[in-house]
Amino acid sequence: MKRILLFLLLFVSAITFSDTLKNVSYNNGKVIGTFRENKQIIPNASVTKLGGEDLLMLSFPDSKMESGVPAFINKSDQYISKVYTVENNGMVVVYVYLKPSVTYQVTSRNGEFQVTLDGGKAATAQKSYNTPQSQNNNTNNTRITQTQSQSQSGNTSRGNKKYTIVVDPGHGGHDSGARGNGYNEKDIALQVATRLANNLRRDYNVIITRDSDFFVPLDTRAKIGNDANADFFISIHLNSSSSSSANGTEVFYFSKKDQGSYAAQVAKFENKVDGSYGDVPFSDFILNDIFYRKNQKTSQAIAESVLNNLINTTGLRRRGVFGANFAVLRGSNSPSILVELGFMNNYSDLSQYLTPDGQERAASAIGDAIRNYFR
Ligand SMILES: [Zn+2]
Question: Where is this region: Disordered (predicted)?
Answer without folding.
Answer: 127-182
